[in-house]
Amino acid sequence: MHSDKDKPAGEDEDRHSGYSRLRSKLRLLYHSQSSKAQRFQFSVLVVDLAIIVFFIASPLLRENDSFLWIDYSIALLLAVDLTARALASTDIKRWLRQVPVILDVFILVTLLAPTWFFNLGFLRILRLWTMTRSSTFWRPLNRRGYAEYRETIQAVINLLVFLFVVTGFVYTAFANRGAEGIAGYVDALYFTVATVTTTGFGDITLPGTWGKLASISIMIVGISLFVKLAQSIFRPNKVHFPCPQCGLQNHDPDAVHCKACGHILNIPDPGNY
């Protein structure tokens, strides 16, 4: 028979064992390539994209009676996802120090306190950028044959994130505060696109010195992102496969040796990595 002193220790071992099993299961779901994990990862990707759509449409839905309910529901989903990804990591403390994770935590805070962080709500679109820092986002796309378009997809996403962050900033900082022509979110989006493309119709302008500086910054960064996107579209296709020897990230799809160090690459077929 076991003494009473042995029971707490046994219970602690059971809890520790259960915790370890949970982490192992989550690690397999988020990072393995089994059929079950693939279905799970694709489902996570679909849910994440639906959340991004809500973030983009948020400025137009704020007056809706059900907005807060949707907001808190998404906060719950994001909290569950962050917790699961933390448990799936090999080192939780190191995982928490990553920039995409810090941004996701900040986005979660804006969802939990939408009234207090109303003016920073436009930064939620950064969730789209943090998604692309995770293999969970790219693995389902790679399996469906989009690996060779990774750089182009990333360039498009970077440009979209920039456009909507700037639109949110312009709308929050200048709408109804002296900016000529900016009465709503669509006006702010119109101004942002016109400025980024350097079209400059002049029908909407930001007032004062800070408005001019903001416009200059938008044009410079926007043009840079457009150039990056054009390069990724028109230059020869590359595959993302880090060289084990020197770390060079992109290679020709049929490359046998790394062009930087000559190391044998053994690049798998697009659907297998």
From TrEMBL:
Keywords: Ion channel, Ion transport, Membrane, Transmembrane, Transmembrane helix, Transport
Transmembrane segments: 42-61, 67-87, 99-118, 153-175, 182-201, 213-230
Main location: membrane
Presence of keyword Transmembrane helix: yes
Any one annotated GO CC term: voltage-gated potassium channel complex
Subcellular location field: Membrane
Membrane topology of the entry: Multi-pass membrane protein
A matching Pfam family: Ion_trans_2
Domain Potassium channel: residue ranges: 161-232
GO process terms (BP): action potential
Gene Ontology MF terms in the entry: voltage-gated potassium channel activity
Span of the signal peptide: none
Protein name: Potassium channel family protein
Species: Devosia litorisediminis
